[in-house]
Amino acid sequence: MVPVHALTVDVESWLDTEAARRRSALLGEARRIEEGTARLLDFFSAHGVRATFFVLGRVAEEAPRMVRRIAEAGHELASHGWSHRPLQELTPQAFREEIRATKAILEDIGGREVTGHRSPSWSMGPRTLWALEELVAAGYRYDASLTPGYAWLWGTPGIPGGPHRLELGGATLLEFPNSVPRAGLRLPFAGGFFLRAWPAGWIRRALRWYEEQGDPAVVYVHPWEVDPAMPRVRLGPFWSFVHYAGLARMEARLRELLQTCRFLPLAELAKLLPADRLPVVRLAPPVQAPAGGRDARSRSRHTARPATRR
User: Fold this and answer.
1) pTM flag (> 0.85)
2) How would you class 210 by CB atoms within 10 Å of its CB: exposed for 0-12, middle for 13-18, buried for 19 or more?
């Protein structure tokens, strides 16, 4: 069987990124989210591939025709939260409201059940694992937010690099983590800045590592990364590098991947996984914040235990 990977899109504006979202001077800039998304839809159609589109609830409310076009093209709609605020900035109640409202509006527009979630800016991590319980309670069946090891802005050491099951008391949630190499430098390689910046040969080797293990890698891209008319603004040396590095080669990188690999949306890929052979990560019972101490935004309610196989 030809190895299958996951193709995903985080449907957000360049103004929603960590590089730009706190800069009040950019409030008047054009978001251009529909232009970039349309370009990706045409690109995917030309290559005959379907993807999972993680859509912000706010975007669905502002551009329902665009979201309907995504669904009508055969792509999967999934939740990216409502506001694109990282989980560290949300209370459990605010997160609960965001994921439920986003699920409802996407299901109303797309006419299909929404089962997947990805946290904004990959902000699901050791201090925000309480959010997993909220996902299960809201009816989600898989998450694609965790990053194995210490990586980029967030990271969750101890979890497997491929798909696995998270056990939360009596509930189970399928996790598709961010893809990192199985050896050496354990930084993401299959999306965003990393897909644009890493050498093409290194990315191909990392993909082969996944294929040899029989696991799918998770590729991700943002609409603004393929929009040639995205505004160029000053974001400071570090964030300008992260935001703009390699943008000119993103479509070429995607084209090479789509021509050499087979891709499916995550919900369809989940049906192909051998559920009885997936690693299991059991999360310890909730940790209560001390009286008068920090709330759930500042302290994890769970800790991850080593993965086991059933």
Assistant:
1) yes
2) buried
